[in-house]
Amino acid sequence: MINELNKDLYKTDWRWYEDGYEVTRTSVWTGPGCHNGCGVLAYTKDGTLERVEGDPNFAYNQGRLCLRCINMVEQIYNHDRMKWPLLLDGEKGSNKWKRVTWDEALDFIEEAFQDCCRIIRDEFGGIGPEGVVALSGTGRNAMWQGAMVLRTAFGSPNMSFGFLSADSCYQPRMTANLLQEGDCWILDNAQLHPDRYNNAEWVKPEVVVVWANQPLASNPDGFMGHWLIDLMRMGTKFIVVDPALTWLASKADIWLQIRPGTDCALALGMLNVIINEDLYDHEWTETWTYGFDSLVERVQEYPVDKVAEICWVDAQLIIDAARMYAKAKPAGIQWGLAIDMQISAMEASNAIDDMVAICGNLDVPGGNVLVRYAYNSSKKYGAGLEFISPEMLDRRIGTTQSPIHKAGYTPFIPPDLLLEAMETGVPYRPQLIWVEQTNPIANMAGDAPRVYKAWKNIKYTIVADYYLTPTAVAFADCVLPMAMSIERNSYRSWWQPLRTITASAGRYYECKSDEELVMAMGKRFNPEFYGQFETTEDFLTWMIQDEGNGVDYTFQDLREKVYDWWDWNETYRKYEKGLLREDGNPGFVTATGLFEIYSPLFDVWGFDPLPHHMEPYESPYRTPELYKEYPLIYTSGHRHIGLFHSEHRQLPHMRQIHPTAICDISPELAEELGVLEGDWVWFENPRGKCKQKAHIAPGLIPNLVRARHGWWFPEEEAAEPHLYGVFDCNANNLTTMGVYGPTHYGAPYKSTLCKCYKVTPENDHSESELITTQPLTGFHFTRFEGV
Amino acid sequence: MPTAEEMNRGFDAVKYWAEFKDYNAKPVQHGLLIDYEFCTNCHSCELACQMHLGLPAEQWGIKTLEYGPIKDVNGKWEWTYVPMPTDLCDGCADRTKEGRLPMCVHHCQAGVMFYGPIEELAKKAAEKPKMVLFTLDEREEA
Fold first, then answer.
1. Is residue A208 part of a domain?
2. Which CATH number belongs to the domain containing residue B98 in this structure?
C-alpha cells in the first residue's frame, strides 16, 4: 500500500521515547495560532523542541499540517520573543522598557487597578472595577483567559474583541443560528467522527456551497479548509460564492461572482427559485419550521432578475445554483467571514440558514450539523460571567443600546460603543485596558487611526503577548511575556473532540501561559476563589469539568486520553430525538420549539423578523456621488495561506512566502493605472489611505480591489512616530467604526469604496509617521445603524 | 557516448545516463507521485522540506510551480500547481529507511503526494488523469 501509517513509529500513547527524543502528542491551538486544533507530535531533547510532525493518529488533521505548525521551531526560538515582564521606562510609544520580575509587574497592575477604581468612583460616580476593559483576539486558546482575568480577578463586566467593529467575525452567523434554531451548525465533513469518512452514518455531500470564504487559507471557525479537497476528490460538486477567483472558484461547477455586501439578496434570490419551483423539503418544512408562509411572501420581493442586478451575478447562474443546491441530497454550506463583514450580516445569515433548513439539510449526514462544545465544556468568552453581580452587569458599556446584547445573547460589549465611551467619557472612560493576545491597531480594529487616537486617552494598558507589537509599544505600561502552545498545558473543547494541549517543550525564559496568568492574577486579586487550586492543572480540571456540565475526569486524565470524541456531537437529527431541549422534547431550543424562519424575537426587538437586503453603507447605489470620486469597491482581509492575521511577521521562513502586504487588483484596473506586477499603489477614501504592493489578479470584478490586513513590520523602527510602520500598509485606515446593521451586527470591512493610484517618489511617505504625530484632541463621530 | 547518427535521431539521455555520469548508476527504486489536479499551493511541502533539511529561507528542496489562473480558449478557468523536487531533494532517505514518509508527503494538506516503489506508483498513476511521477535521486554521495 502507498502512504499507509506506520503504527510502530506513530503510537497512540500520549508520550513515548525514541532515539533520544521525548515525543509528545498534543494539539496546537495558539499561539501562534489559528482556528484549527491540529494534532502535533513534538520531538524534544532536554526540553528543547527539535522538530514537529503532524500526528497521523488524530482524525482531525490525519498527519497534515500547515505552515504555522511546521514552522514551530523557528517560531518558539525566535529572538524577538518577549523573555521577561517589562515596565515602561519612558513616554508611551518610546519603546523604552525596564525588565522587572513577575511580582513587580503584578504590584504595578494592582496599583493601576486601584487608581482605576478610584477614578471611576470619583470622576464618573461608578463602582470602580468596571473601569477595566479586557480585549480578546479571535477564537484561539486565548479566548477565555482574558475573560477570566477580567471577570474573576478584576470583577469587571466589560469584555470585548479588539475593536472588531460590530463583532464582525462569526458572531453574526452564530447569533443568527442561536436565534433561529438555538444551536450553531457547521458543514458535515465527517470531522465529528473519529473514523471520519469510514463512518457508517456519514454521507458525502453531493454539493457543497462555499459561501463567502476561502477555507484553504482561512481554516475558518474550526474547519480545516483542506477537508474540502477530500470531498472534491470524492466527487462532491462545488458552488463558490466569492467576488474573487479563488483556487476553489476556479475548480467550482458554479462560481457566483458576487458584489460584496449583497449576500442576503443572493440568498433571497436563490430562495425565490427554491420556493417558486417547489424544490424545498415539504415534510421537513411543515414539521419543523415556524413562519414559512411569511418567507414565501418575502421572496416574491426578490425575483431573480432583480437579485442579479443587485449582486452583479448572471441571473441564469443564480437559478442554476439554486436548483443544484436544492436538488442535491444532501447538500452542505460552508459559510464564512465575508457574510459577517457587511451591514446585512445578520440578515444574510438568516437567509442562508433558511436555505439549509427548508431544503432538509439541517443536522443530517453530509449537510449542516448542529454542534456544541465537546462535553458541553463551554467556558469561552463568557467564562466567569457568574462572578459578576446584576448591579455590575448593568454597568456594561453600550449594552443597553443593543437589544441582542441586552438580552444576553453575547458576552461581549459592543466594540463601537466602547470606542465612543473612550472618546467621550460617556457613560465613563475606561481607565485600564487589559489586552490578552490581541493586536488591534495592526489587525482587527476598524478605522485603526481613530482607535489609535482614542486609546491614547486611556491611562493604563497591560498587554500579554508573545512579542512586542505596535499595540504594546503605542499604549502599554506593562507587557507580560506569554508561553506558546507547545510550551503550555491547556485544552480545547471547541466542537469536536475534546483535546488536550500538553506542554512538551521547556519554558522560554520567564514566559507564563495564559492559564498561569489567570492563576497568578486570580491568586493576587481573588484568593478566596483561586485558593482552592494548588496548581494550574487543578484549575484546568475545574474548567473542563465546568461545574458538572463538562467531563467527570481530571486534566491529567485528558492529557493521557489526548482526544475524547463526544457521542452527542456524532449524533444526527438531534431535534427528532429530543437531544437539544432541556425538557427532552423533540424540537429546537427556541420559544416555539421550531426552526424560526420568522423571528418573533426580532419582532419584539423592533427588527424586521425576516431577512431583507440592505445596500452596503458606501456603494454605487446608496452613495452614487461618493462612487464617482471613489469608483472602486474595497474589500479587506482575504487570508494569507499559512499566516494568521498579524502574526508570524518575524519569521524569515514565513516572509519568504508572504514578504509584504500584497493586494489584488484586476488586470483592467492595472492597465488603466499603468500598474505593473509588484508596483506599489495607494488605496484612499475619505477616512484614510494605505499603500500595498500590487498583484494583478485575473478573475476579479474589474473595479474591485482586495487589500491585505494585519501588516506591520517587526524589522522596522518600533518607537513612535514609526511604530513598526503599522499604519503604512494598514487596510483599516479605510474602514469604519460605528457603522453596522440595525441588529448592531456586521460592519462593512469587506464592502466599502476607495480610489487607487500609483505610489510615486513624489507622493510616497510613511502614513504611520503622519498618524502617530497627529494632534490627539477631538474625534470624528460616525454612527450608522443601517436600513 | 552517442554517435553523431544517434544524436541526429534525438539524444536518448536515459540510454546513456550511466555512461555519461560519473557514478554508479542503479535503477531508481522510489518516486514521488503527485495528483496535481488537486494541489492547492498551500506551501506545506516546501516548508516541511526546508525544516527537515535545515535550509534557510529561499532555498528549496521542493517548490511549487504555477500555471494560471488563466481563462483558456474555451472560456474555462485553469489554475494548476505542480510541486517539483529540486537538486536539494534527497528523498528524505534517512526518514524512509526508518519507515517514515518524506516530510512533504507526510504533511501535504491536500493529500495529493504519494511515496513508494516506482512500479506501484506507476500503477497508481494510471488510475486517473493529471498525475505526475518524479523519480527520486537516490545516488549516494561520492
1. yes
2. 3.30.70.20
Q: What is the CATH number of the domain that holds A318?
A: 3.40.228.10
Query: Residue A227: how many CB atoms within 10 A of its CB?
Result: 23
CB contact under 8 A, B47 and A641: no
Residue B142, pLDDT score: 42
Residues of A with CB under 8 A from a CB of B: 2-3, 6, 8-9, 51, 53-54, 56, 62-67, 70-71, 73, 216, 225-226, 229-230, 232-233, 245, 247, 249-251, 641-642, 652-653, 655-657, 697-699
Q: Do A408 and A353 share a domain, yes or no?
A: no
- State the CATH number of the domain containing residue A475: 3.40.50.740
d(CA A706, CA A243): 10
A238 pairs with which residues across the strands? A208
Residue in chain B closest to A72 (alpha carbons) equals B51
The nearest CA of chain A is from the CA of B39 a distance in Å of 9
Note the pLDDT tens digit of each residue in A2-45: 678 888 999 999 999 999 999 999 999 987 789 999 999 999 99
Dist CA A596 CA A177 (whole Å): 10
Find cell 488605496 and name the residue: A683
Mutate to test the interface with A, among B78, B107, B119 (most CBs of A within 10 A): B107
CA distance A42 to chain B (A): 14
> Looking at the structure, do residues A264 and A348 belong to the same domain, yes or no?
yes
Question: What's the pLDDT at A33?
Answer: 80
What is the distance between the alpha carbons of residues B66 and A429, in angstroms, rounded to a whole number?
Answer: 53
User: Measured between beta carbons, which residues in chain B are less than 8 angstroms from residue A63?
Assistant: 106-107
Please give the tally of structural domains in chain A.
3
| Residue B1 burial (C-beta neighbours within 10 Å; 0-12, 13-18, 19+) | exposed
pLDDT class for A377, splitting at 50, 70, 90?
Answer: confident
Q: Closest-CA residue in chain A for B128?
A: A233
Query: Grid coordinates standing for A236?
Result: 462532491
Q: Do A582 and A690 fall within a single domain?
A: no
Per-residue pLDDT of chain B (142 residues; tens, 9 = 90+): 667 777 677 666 666 666 656 555 677 899 999 999 999 999 999 999 999 999 999 999 999 999 999 999 999 999 999 999 999 999 999 999 999 999 999 999 999 999 999 999 999 999 999 999 999 988 765 4
Q: Identify whether residues A320 and A452 lie together within a single domain.
A: no
pLDDT value of residue B18: 61
For residue A571, pLDDT beyond 70: yes
Residue A72 in 3-state DSSP?
A: helix
Inter-chain CB proximity B110 and A229 less than 8 Å: yes
Tell me, yes or no, whether A310 and A230 share the same domain: yes
A252: distance to nearest CA of chain B, Å? 10
Which residues form the domain of A706? 624-785
Into how many domains does chain B fold?
Answer: 1
First CA to last CA distance, chain A: 60
Same domain (yes/no): A734, A767? yes
Nearest chain B residue to A231, by CA: B110
Claim: this prediction has a pTM higher than 0.90: yes
- Read off the DSSP letter of residue A467: B
ipTM of the complex: 0.96
Count of helix runs (H) and strand runs (E) in chain A: 30, 30
Chain A hits for B115, Cβ within 8 Å: 2-3
Domain of B129?
23-135
